[in-house]
């Protein structure tokens, strides 16, 4: 071989070897860009089945790997009705939270309403969405819309005593005692033995001035002394101190060992000071005035 041919062959061989070595140690970017990999691991180039390296030579050379960054796919699926309701519930609570930034209440209320309405558009019979919009209107004082929404719910789910009771309590919050009693009666037609509804009914009857009916209702779920003690608390809360004392006296007569009535009566017999809490013992027992 002549010297020029030998030098040419040597130079070509060195360049080729250098190129192969460079490719093994410094993998160049794929001309197709990043390849998707649903497993999140690095994408591996395939190894020929012959066992030989794709670069030539023996089969001992491992195929190079190309690290691929996997970007999570963004779903365009809309939020479910229940998810929309949950978000709206948070916004509604935030609107009435004392810690909420001033001036943001109306915006939060609008977002809550829109969320409930969007949920209802997706699923018109969704229980959470139907109750969400009803509670929304009740909370902002739009009584007619609230009752209309509640009635739509009960039309579809007529045996839901808990919701019927909720409507009664909503009327009590509005201080609509007649309406509250009517809804208690409606609820008791669904669940005649519901003690919690009877208690609500007894207090609302008392607030409506129907004391005898209130007493009879409370006696269905508690002893006479306890019922009179609760009525005494209501009467005193309404400023009827003499009538309250009479109920307490009757309570002690019915059960001389009923300590709450005895203590309440003793407290009422003491002179009231200007700094005395008018809602102290006079709201003892189970009585809690509607907010």
TrEMBL record:
Stored Pfam families: TPR_19, TPR_8
Residue spans of the TPR repeats: 127-160
InterPro entries: TPR-like_helical_dom_sf, TPR_rpt, Ycf3
Keywords: Repeat, TPR repeat
Highest taxon above the source species: Bacteria
Compositional bias annotation for Polar residues: 31-41
Region: Disordered, residue numbers: 31-60, 268-291
Chain segments annotated as coiled-coil in the UniProt record: none
UniProt entry tagged with the keyword Repeat: yes
UniProt name for this protein: Tetratricopeptide repeat protein
